[in-house]
Write a structure and sequence with these properties.
mainly alpha, 23 helices
């Protein structure tokens, strides 16, 4: 019996036997592939305008380069359990990383919007499966005493990629052409695929799982998740109660309800939802994963917006500043490993989300002059908290489950983090789009009334302000003043968005007591 089969035959992961070096290497390969897939989203995000210029795209088309990837990704993530059963862990990994790499080449070779979107969707689907595979392997391939280190390795790679993405994307943009945003995946992707065929532990595939696929449930899930993703993308600009967004969210709600009803009663479900219904700890862990996604992706979104539009830094400069979060995550990782087996996961989760809320709150007092120095400690606190907030809820959610349930459960756990990220970005954008007109009007009115304090805050020398207060500004001066007002207004609304994210993170403290986790259970 091979190692993965042995794991699935018992109540949990592999027994206490020594884990072969090849298993660690195979697991590391899966982690690297996941890192590449997550990194791809961020490095492309830093260079969307470059791609827009190269392919002569309209402004409303450019966001679809990311949206196509993200829609396919959120559809693929919950399907990973089914695909692991149907293709085996090794089989799915090799297929996914191979086709992800091939799709990256297709993206680089695209010469039109339509072609690029098709390749991005394929890239997102196969990249999406690589995320839960790594977390599943960390729980199935290792005994209980090693699950913490293995999960931490996967966690570091998963949350480090969004932090490293801006600096890698900025470097590629300033050094090479946009094609290399995708071609950078080719060599590591090829090496991971080849190494995976030899080093990822083998297990048996059950092709019958794919033959018994509930196509209607799959369609319901795909349509619902796609509608939800598009609705969240459009809500900040079109309005949450607009006909367009309301219709998309209604389709998502009805589709997910029908999917859940059909799936919960199915003998061979596309996604095993019964664990979410019947296991309180898993449900709490998924909710915490969702809240973590709001905090991670919301903060990763707000920092470049502030540094790019207010501080007017380049992509590479932004990457260097936000890299502090990644360094803090790496430093925190061994501390997480040391503590996560010794302290009740509920306590660690509470400390983690409280720390995350503090780190987010400390960023809510930025001025137009805020830069690396002021941003340093909030980033350090957030980076350390994120590592604890990923691993502790994972233990609450997954480590007590029988191994056969882990692939589906891992997919749902990771899906919740991604959906939380989409909602976090949508909420942050809603604050920005919804509040900035009021701030612009208020600042302009106070300047017109001769408010010297506001003139200083905007950045106008007091003498100049008083001299020109009742004179007509020319077009150049009006444009310059408008720019200053908008920068200050943007600073204020971004601060409000930070406060909103901090408040959302504190909701975790309400959920954690519902988990029945006891130290040593798992």
């Amino acid at each position: 019996m091979n190692r993965v089969d042995a794991a699935r035959s018992g109540d949990g992961a592999v027994g206490a036997a020594t884990v072969p070096l090849t298993t660690w290497i195979g697991f590391s390969i899966m982690g690297v592939a996941m890192f590449i897939a997550v990194l791809d989203v961020q490095i492309v995000a830093t260079s969307l305008t470059t791609i827009q210029d190269a392919l002569d795209l309209f402004p409303d088309q450019i966001s679809w380069i990311q949206t196509a990837y993200l829609i396919a990704e959120v559809i693929a993530i919950p399907l990973t359990g089914l695909l692991i059963r149907g293709l085996s862990m090794r089989g799915l990994f090799v297929v996914a990383v191979t086709l992800f790499t091939f799709s990256s080449v297709g993206c680089a070779g695209s010469d039109s919007f339509e072609t690029l979107i098709v390749w991005r969707a394929l890239q997102g689907f196969f990249g999406g499966t690589l995320i839960p595979i790594a977390f599943t392997a960390g729980l199935i391939l290792f005994p209980s005493r090693l699950q913490g280190p293995a999960s931490t390795v996967a966690g570091v790679l998963a949350v480090l990629a969004p932090t490293v993405g801006p600096i890698v994307g900025g470097w590629i943009t300033t050094t090479f052409s946009w094609h290399w945003l995708f071609l950078i995946n080719v060599v590591p992707g090829f090496l991971c695929a080849v190494a995976g065929t030899m080093l990822v532990p083998a297990d048996k595939a059950d092709a019958g799982e794919l033959r018994r696929l509930d196509v209607l449930s799959l369609i319901l899930m795909a349509v619902a998740l796609a509608a939800l993703e598009i609705g969240l993308k459009d809500a900040p600009q079109h309005g949450w109660i607009s006909l367009r967004v309301g219709s998309l969210l209604a389709v998502a709600a009805v589709g997910l309800a029908l999917f859940a009803y059909r799936t919960l009663g199915a003998k061979h479900p596309v996604v095993e939802l019964r664990t979410l219904r019947d296991d309180k700890n898993f449900a709490v862990g998924c909710a915490l994963s969702f809240l973590l996604g709001v905090g991670i992706f919301g903060s990763v979104y707000l920092m470049p917006v502030f540094l790019g539009f207010v501080r007017e830094h380049t992509a590479l400069e932004i990457g260097k500043i936000v890299f502090v979060t990644g360094v803090a995550q790496i430093i925190a990782a061994p501390i997480v490993v040391a503590l996560e087996r010794r302290i009740d996961a509920r306590i660690l989760s509470a400390i983690a989300f409280l720390g995350l809320a503090v780190g987010l709150y400390l960023s809510a007092f930025q001025t137009e002059e805020t830069d690396f120095g002021v941003m340093f400690w909030p980033q350090v606190i957030r980076g350390a908290a994120i590592m604890f907030a990923l691993i502790a809820p994972l233990r609450i959610a997954l480590t007590h489950l029988p191994a056969p349930q882990v692939p589906d459960a891992s997919g749902l756990f990771n899906l919740m983090r991604n959906l939380g990220g989409a909602i976090g970005i949508a909420l942050a954008d809603t604050v920005i789009y919804g509040r900035i007109p009021a701030y612009v009007s208020d600042i302009a009115a106070r300047l017109k009334a001769g408010d010297v304090t506001m003139a200083r805050e905007v950045g106008i020398p007091v003498d100049t302000f008083l001299q020109r207060l009742h004179t007509q500004l020319d077009d150049v001066e009006q444009a310059a003043l408008k720019h200053l007002i908008e920068k200050l207004a943007l600073t204020h609304v971004i601060n409000e968005a930070w406060l909103m994210l901090a408040g959302v993170s504190l909701l975790a403290l309400v959920l954690i007591p519902f988990a029945d986790y006891k130290r040593g259970d798992y």
